[in-house]
Amino acid sequence: MKKIIFAFLIFCIQLSLNAQSQYVPSPENLKAREWFQDAKFGMFIHWGVYSVLGDGEWVMNNQRIDKQTYQKLPAFFNPIGYDPKEWVSLAKAAGMKYITITSKHHDGFAMWDSKLTDWDIVDRTPYGKDIIKMLAEECSKQGIRLFFYHSHLDWFQENYFPRGNTGQTAGRPDSGDWYRYLDYMDGQLAELLTNYGEIGGIWFDGHWDKKDADWRLEKTYSLIHSLQPACLIGNNHHLAPFDGEDFQMFEKDLPGQKTTGFNPEQKVGELPFETCETMNNSWGFNLQDKNYKSTKSLIQYLVKAAGFNSNFLLNVGPMPNGKIQPEFVATLREMGAWMDKYGETVYGTRGGPVTPRSWGVTTRKGNKVYVHLLNPEDNNLLLPDFGKKVKNVILYQTGSKLKFKQDAFGISISVPAENIDDTDTIIVLEI
């Protein structure tokens, strides 16, 4: 029956799609891009059967586990502690506006009730429930937009052939039908975009596994936009944006920076930006990773991202029981408390008129420029002239006016030493 459904889906896809010479985003898509840029803060969730082993989402590849052996894992994945209301409420408490969850990671395991394979959470686990459906319903209730991370590469499917640079020890045969695999991937995307309500976006990953392959992205992107025109497409290929994409992401780096080695060839485009980072060193649950980032460092990362005109997608890797570990929960609540006080200087802003500096960044909204002093050298600040007359300078934390001087050299401001905040001293320029 699943083979019949698969064939029918592919037939429908073929009928619905026409060649797309150049992508022209719909009005709904452009509106969604604006919302995305205003949102600024989202939750990334890496969760799947790999969580059982507590060694990250790449465990199948890193531990050289063959496909036959890996298929034993779902029998141990029974997340009875999974509560989508708890997850979404935590995201809201942290000040996040959207959630991006791994619908399928590189192991190919579908976290929804896929009709195209039995390699999914409903058919293979004792839990037997569609966690994507549960999360989608809760996001809708609480007003959080849902995005899907979806892996291009697949260590499980035999038709993912020729093999890429990873998953070499999965034990698959040295043959396969590449375009049948792409049809399968498009079929699964069609399921996600027709059965789970309005989807905010698709977050692709894995193109880098076979950079020179014919990924048939035009067809896949056209399918997505035909099913949901407002759905935003991003692709973590670490390259300049391709035609058909709606936002550009930067893995573990701010736009234009090349500090982590993930983006050596990546050029900054003109689409909305998003940077993603982890709360420790791992994406998927890692039992022994205790390198937790401080609340201060994550707040500053969020603020820096806004100053770079970018969103910040912060990852949690839930435990196999479905719970988010308490260390993450505590930090997210602390970030939310900060955003309750100072979110006005982040939400709905764009990168400010003064480019990022060693001391911090600027954001802007309307007639206000927010100067974020993250690492002040002292309490005196000289901003370069940005072509606007400044009417008032206000210390955001207290609401008091600060003395300033604007001349040909720029704008000089002095902040009382006792008002320097350890995390972020925010100065408002009214122009």
**CA radius of gyration:** 23 Å
Major sheet description: 8 strands, parallel
Output the structural class. alpha/beta
Using the coordinates above, name the CATH class of the largest domain: Alpha Beta
What does this structure look like?
The chain is an alpha/beta fold. It folds into 2 domains: 348 residues, TIM Barrel (Alpha-Beta Barrel), CATH 3.20.20; 71 residues, Sandwich (Immunoglobulin-like), CATH 2.60.40. Helices cover 28% and strands 19% of the residues. It is built from 11 helices and 16 strands. Strands 5-4-3-2-1-8-7-6 form an 8-stranded parallel beta sheet, sandwiched between helices. It has a 5-stranded antiparallel beta sheet with strand order 9-10-11-16-13. A hairpin with a 2-residue loop joins strand 10 and strand 11. It is globular.
Features:
431 residues, alpha/beta, TIM Barrel, Immunoglobulin-like, 2 domains, eight-stranded parallel beta sheet, five-stranded antiparallel beta sheet, 11 helices, 19% strand, globular
